Give the backbone structure.
Amino acid sequence: MQELIARNKKAYHDYHVLDEIEAGIVLLGTEVKAIREHRVNLKDSFARVQGGEVWLENCHIGAYKHGNRENHAPRRRRKLLLHRREINKILGKAKQKGLTLVPLALYFKNGKAKVRLALARGKKTYDKREAKRKKIVEREIQALLKGR
């Protein structure tokens, strides 16, 4: 059973998702409590492989409202937990030009915080316009079918 906390809606708009991977995340106590309060924003975040480890960068986890001076920094780097073979797989694919690691969702699974990462390629402006056009056409078709 999983409890969805945050989704990165912009990821599907800005990127072609090629592959998805689930990773654990190393958090501080106040971060876990802030996540349970849904104080998370994945909008501008990304993941990076450095020194054989995967790090989540620029993910905003707001301050825990009952925290004291021990509260965490909102945009600190957070280590992602993956098996070595998964990291090697990511490294092999990420070497290709234009591929990046983007977090799609943050959720709790069996009481543990997890991040769903996507290996993705950035969309061009004309791709975004085409996707928007297709979405509008599909919506119109569904409206016509319902109207029957």
Q: What stands out?
A: The chain has one domain: 2-123.
